[in-house]
C-alpha cells in the first residue's frame, strides 16, 4: 500500500510540476504599438497612441530615473541624436513626474524634438511587456509592427541595426 501511494505521489507531482506556461506575453500576441495612456511633464497633458507620428519608426523605452543602465542609455541617445533623428522615441516611467522631469532635464532629452518623456500612471506597459530588467526597449517599424525587444543595456549600434533590418 505504501508503494502504491509513493507511485501515485510521483505521478501526481510529475503532472503538476511538469507543466509549462504556454501563454505568451501580450506584446507577442499583439505585436503592434500598444495603447498608450501616458502623462507628460506638466502632469495634465495626456500622450496617447494618437499622438505618435504616423509612418515613423518608434523606439519605446521603459526606464527608471534611478537606474544606472537607463541613465547610460539616455546619455548615449543624446550623444547620437543625429543617428536617431528619423525615429520617434518615447521614454516611459512609472516613477513620480518630478523624478522623470529631473531625468529628462539632466540628460537634455527635453531639447530633442523626436523624444517624448512621459509617466505611465496606470502601470500598463510593464505588465504588457512582462518586464524583468530595465531599460526595456520595444522597436516598431514605420507600419507599427514590432521589430524586436531588448531588456537591459544594449549598444545603440544594435538598436540601429534592428531598425535597419526591420524596415
In a nutshell, what does this entry contain?
The protein has 167 residues and is an alpha/beta fold. Helices cover 35% and strands 21% of the residues.
Q: What structural class do you assign from the helix and strand content?
A: alpha/beta
What is the helical fraction, as a range of percent? 25-40%
Order of helices and strands: HHEEEHEHEHEEH
- Spatial extent as radius of gyration: 20 Å
Uncertain runs: none
E-strand count: 7
Number of helices: 6
Assembly of the depicted chains: single chain
Strand order of the largest sheet: 5-4-3-6-7
Strand content: 15-25%
Distance, first to last CA: 65 Å
Shape: globular
The major beta sheet can be summarized as: 5 strands, mixed
Mean pLDDT: 90
Overall description:
The protein has six helices and seven strands, in the order ααβββαβαβαββα. With about 170 residues, it is an alpha/beta fold. The chain has a five-stranded mixed beta sheet. Strands 1-2 form a two-stranded antiparallel ribbon. The protein is globular and about 75 Å long.
Identify the notable features of this structure and list them briefly:
167 residues; alpha/beta; five-stranded mixed sheet; two-stranded antiparallel sheet; globular
List the helices and strands and how they pair.
Elements: H1 2-17, H2 26-29, E1 37-39, E2 46-48, E3 57-62, H3 68-79, E4 87-93, H4 97-107, E5 115-119, H5 124-129, E6 136-140, E7 146-151, H6 156-165
Parallel strand pairs: 3-4, 4-5
Antiparallel strand pairs: 1-2, 3-6, 6-7
